[in-house]
Specification:
By secondary structure, this protein is mostly helical. 78% of the residues lie in helices and 0% in strands. The protein has seven helices and no strands. Helix 1 packs across helix 3 and helix 5 crosses helix 7. The longest helix is centred in the middle third of the chain and has 30 residues.
Amino acid sequence: MSAKLIHIESPSFEEVYMQFHRLIYHIAYKLTKDVHVSEDIVQETFMKAYRKWDTLIDFRKIQGWLSSIASRTAIDFIRKESRRREELVDDQETYDSPFIESSSGLVESEVDFHLLEEEIETGIGMLPAAQQEVLRLKAIHGLSDKEIARRLDLNPATVKTRYHRARKQLNVLLNKTA
């Protein structure tokens, strides 16, 4: 069996920028909570993407590729900023604040939490639609099995089965990426 390459015409870089710059900004802002820093991260993300443009094989995956670059760029910025703050505190020996040290850990924890949220949301999106629906209604909206069964016109046992299978499959999906 021979593998066939599917030729997909590559969009222009300008078209990609116009289509995805808002998404990249929102990813950056979600992680940094700073308008100006987010704008810098958008610029840096597209600069990195432009440098590696020729390495992208499947242009259908461009959104995920850019999102990944943006997330990593934002995390790198947060880490650098954290280190810079620690260096400033080290330079000022007379200034002794436990908040600076603990805040850098909090920022990284928050970034890790947001990345985990994104991984979980991506994993949920990979589940069959019936399982997604039950999982979201139970885990996110807090509905009981009976409420879900009534809402979806299902047997409560079917709701339990779908929920169990969704959690099991999501666990497998998340452990593959870890």
